Protein backbone atom coordinates (compact mmCIF):
# COMPACT_ATOMS: atom_id res chain seq x y z
CA UNK A 1 0.00 0.00 0.00
CA UNK A 2 2.77 2.57 0.75
CA UNK A 3 4.08 2.30 -2.83
CA UNK A 4 0.63 3.01 -4.21
CA UNK A 5 0.26 6.02 -1.89
CA UNK A 6 3.61 7.40 -3.17
CA UNK A 7 2.49 6.93 -6.72
CA UNK A 8 -0.76 8.79 -6.03
CA UNK A 9 1.10 11.61 -4.30
CA UNK A 10 3.54 11.86 -7.22
CA UNK A 11 0.66 11.91 -9.72
CA UNK A 12 -1.12 14.64 -7.76
CA UNK A 13 2.12 16.65 -7.67
CA UNK A 14 2.53 16.35 -11.43
CA UNK A 15 -1.09 17.34 -12.00
CA UNK A 16 -0.63 20.31 -9.69
CA UNK A 17 2.40 21.44 -11.65
CA UNK A 18 0.53 21.03 -14.93
CA UNK A 19 -2.46 22.92 -13.61
CA UNK A 20 -0.18 25.69 -12.37
CA UNK A 21 1.43 25.99 -15.80
CA UNK A 22 -2.01 26.06 -17.43
CA UNK A 23 -3.19 28.76 -15.03
CA UNK A 24 -0.01 30.75 -15.66
CA UNK A 25 -0.44 30.35 -19.42
CA UNK A 26 -4.06 31.43 -19.18
CA UNK A 27 -3.04 34.50 -17.18
CA UNK A 28 -0.31 35.40 -19.72
CA UNK A 29 -0.91 33.64 -23.04
CA UNK A 30 2.16 35.27 -24.61
CA UNK A 31 4.58 34.10 -21.91
CA UNK A 32 5.68 31.09 -23.95
CA UNK A 33 6.22 33.22 -27.08
CA UNK A 34 8.22 35.83 -25.14
CA UNK A 35 10.37 33.12 -23.58
CA UNK A 36 11.00 31.56 -27.00
CA UNK A 37 11.91 34.93 -28.55
CA UNK A 38 14.23 35.65 -25.63
CA UNK A 39 16.01 32.30 -26.18
CA UNK A 40 16.32 33.00 -29.91
CA UNK A 41 17.67 36.50 -29.29
CA UNK A 42 20.20 35.15 -26.84
CA UNK A 43 21.26 32.47 -29.32
CA UNK A 44 21.79 35.21 -31.94
CA UNK A 45 24.04 37.06 -29.52
CA UNK A 46 21.57 39.85 -28.92
CA UNK A 47 20.42 41.12 -25.59
CA UNK A 48 16.83 40.14 -24.95
CA UNK A 49 16.55 42.54 -22.05
CA UNK A 50 17.19 46.25 -21.76
CA UNK A 51 18.51 47.66 -25.01
CA UNK A 52 17.25 44.77 -27.15
CA UNK A 53 15.83 47.35 -29.53
CA UNK A 54 19.30 48.77 -30.21
CA UNK A 55 20.22 48.85 -33.86
CA UNK A 56 22.66 46.23 -35.08
CA UNK A 57 25.94 47.50 -36.51
CA UNK A 58 25.43 48.53 -40.10
CA UNK A 59 27.54 46.86 -42.75
CA UNK A 60 30.29 48.96 -44.32
CA UNK A 61 28.27 49.34 -47.52
CA UNK A 62 25.26 50.84 -45.74
CA UNK A 63 26.99 54.16 -45.07
CA UNK A 64 26.21 56.98 -47.49
CA UNK A 65 25.71 60.69 -47.12
CA UNK A 66 22.97 60.64 -49.76
CA UNK A 67 24.83 62.69 -52.37
CA UNK A 68 27.83 60.39 -52.61
CA UNK A 69 28.77 56.77 -52.02
CA UNK A 70 32.31 56.55 -50.64
CA UNK A 71 33.03 59.90 -52.28
CA UNK A 72 31.64 59.04 -55.73
CA UNK A 73 28.71 61.25 -56.75
CA UNK A 74 25.48 59.27 -56.63
CA UNK A 75 24.33 60.79 -59.93
CA UNK A 76 27.45 59.36 -61.63
CA UNK A 77 26.63 55.90 -60.29
CA UNK A 78 22.96 56.24 -61.22
CA UNK A 79 23.90 57.21 -64.81
CA UNK A 80 26.09 54.10 -65.12
CA UNK A 81 23.36 51.90 -63.64
CA UNK A 82 20.67 53.38 -65.90
CA UNK A 83 22.79 52.57 -68.95
CA UNK A 84 23.91 49.11 -67.77
CA UNK A 85 20.66 47.68 -66.40
CA UNK A 86 17.98 50.33 -66.55
CA UNK A 87 18.76 50.79 -62.84
CA UNK A 88 17.41 47.32 -61.99
CA UNK A 89 19.41 45.73 -59.14
CA UNK A 90 18.09 42.24 -60.06
CA UNK A 91 19.02 42.49 -63.75
CA UNK A 92 20.88 39.59 -65.36
CA UNK A 93 22.36 39.67 -68.88
CA UNK A 94 20.90 37.29 -71.44
CA UNK A 95 23.88 34.93 -71.14
CA UNK A 96 23.99 35.23 -67.33
CA UNK A 97 27.55 36.60 -67.26
CA UNK A 98 26.71 40.08 -65.98
CA UNK A 99 24.56 40.59 -62.94
CA UNK A 100 22.94 43.31 -60.91
CA UNK A 101 22.45 47.04 -61.23
CA UNK A 102 25.99 47.63 -62.54
CA UNK A 103 26.26 44.36 -64.49
CA UNK A 104 29.17 42.95 -62.51
CA UNK A 105 30.84 39.75 -63.64
CA UNK A 106 31.69 37.44 -60.74
CA UNK A 107 35.44 38.18 -60.85
CA UNK A 108 34.96 41.95 -60.69
CA UNK A 109 32.34 41.58 -57.95
CA UNK A 110 34.77 39.51 -55.87
CA UNK A 111 37.61 41.99 -56.52
CA UNK A 112 35.67 44.71 -54.69
CA UNK A 113 34.77 42.42 -51.78
CA UNK A 114 31.42 41.11 -52.98
CA UNK A 115 30.34 37.56 -52.24
CA UNK A 116 27.61 35.51 -53.82
CA UNK A 117 25.45 36.69 -56.70
CA UNK A 118 25.59 40.46 -57.30
CA UNK A 119 21.98 40.43 -58.52
CA UNK A 120 20.89 39.06 -55.14
CA UNK A 121 22.87 41.59 -53.09
CA UNK A 122 21.06 44.56 -51.56
CA UNK A 123 20.96 47.57 -53.87
CA UNK A 124 22.95 49.66 -51.37
CA UNK A 125 25.71 47.06 -51.42
CA UNK A 126 25.77 47.10 -55.21
CA UNK A 127 26.09 50.91 -55.11
CA UNK A 128 28.92 50.66 -52.60
CA UNK A 129 30.86 48.05 -54.57
CA UNK A 130 30.37 49.99 -57.82
CA UNK A 131 31.72 53.10 -56.07
CA UNK A 132 34.79 51.15 -54.93
CA UNK A 133 35.33 49.97 -58.49
CA UNK A 134 34.84 53.49 -59.83
CA UNK A 135 37.38 54.87 -57.34
CA UNK A 136 39.89 52.23 -58.42
CA UNK A 137 39.40 52.22 -62.20
CA UNK A 138 37.21 55.16 -63.18
CA UNK A 139 34.76 54.42 -65.98
CA UNK A 140 36.90 51.75 -67.68
CA UNK A 141 34.90 48.82 -66.17
CA UNK A 142 31.88 50.24 -68.01
CA UNK A 143 33.31 50.99 -71.48
CA UNK A 144 29.94 51.75 -73.08
CA UNK A 145 28.16 53.30 -70.12
CA UNK A 146 30.96 54.95 -68.15
- The total domain count is 2
Tell me the CATH topology of the largest domain. Lysozyme
CATH architectural type of the largest domain: Orthogonal Bundle
Distance between the termini: 93 Å
Main sheet makeup: 2 strands, antiparallel
The protein's oligomeric status is single chain
How much helix is in the residues?
40-55%
Beta-sheet strand percentage?
Answer: under 5%
Mean pLDDT, all residues: 75
Helix/strand/pairing class, anyone? mainly alpha
**Strand order, sheet with most strands:** 1-2
- CATH level 1 class label of the largest domain: Mainly Alpha
The arrangement of helices and strands along the chain is HHEEHHH
Explain what the structure shows.
The structure is a single chain. By secondary structure, this protein is mostly helical. The protein has two domains: 2-43; 65-137, Lysozyme, CATH 1.10.530.10. The chain is built from five helices and two strands. It has a two-stranded antiparallel sheet. Strand 1 (68-69) and strand 2 form a beta hairpin. The longest helix is centred in the first third of the chain and has 26 residues, at 2-27.
Short description:
By secondary structure, the chain is mainly α.
Provide keyphrases for this structure.
single chain; 146 residues; mainly alpha; Lysozyme; two-stranded antiparallel ribbon; 5 helices; 49% helix
Could you outline the blueprint of secondary structure elements for this entry?
Elements lengths: L1 H26 L3 H13 L24 E2 L2 E2 H12 L20 H6 L11 H15 L9
Antiparallel strand pairs: 1-2
Amino acid sequence: MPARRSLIIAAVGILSLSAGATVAAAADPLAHDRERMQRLATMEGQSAGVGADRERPRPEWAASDGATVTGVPRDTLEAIAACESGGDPRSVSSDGSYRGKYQFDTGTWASVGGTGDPAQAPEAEQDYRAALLYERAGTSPWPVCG
